[in-house]
Amino acid sequence: MASDVAHMVGEIARGVLHVFLWNVVLFNLGRLLLLTATLGRYPRDRLLQTHANRISATGVVCVVFAWSAVAAYNHWPRHLA
Fold this sequence. Notes:
Blueprint: H1 2-37, H2 47-50, H3 52-74
């Protein structure tokens, strides 16, 4: 019984964390990147809701690109710099 309650609490916490990361952090990061790249033209108004997953995916791509850039910088041979 206690393990079922712990499992349920863990699933709820994981769901809340997923919603927070995907719908808040990555969405706003993707939105900021797209607004900057398009000089404020996209996404606006109704496109925010219809393209929410695309905007969040742009946030994921931004995080992956930044993480890759940091990894490449940290593993760059020092004798070439």
